[in-house]
Amino acid sequence: MASLFSKAVKLAAYARSPQGRKVINQAKEFAGDPRRRAQAKEMLNKLRDKGSGGNGNRDGGSTPPPR
Question: Where are the alpha helices (DSSP H) in 1-67?
Answer without folding.
Answer: 2-16, 18-32, 34-51
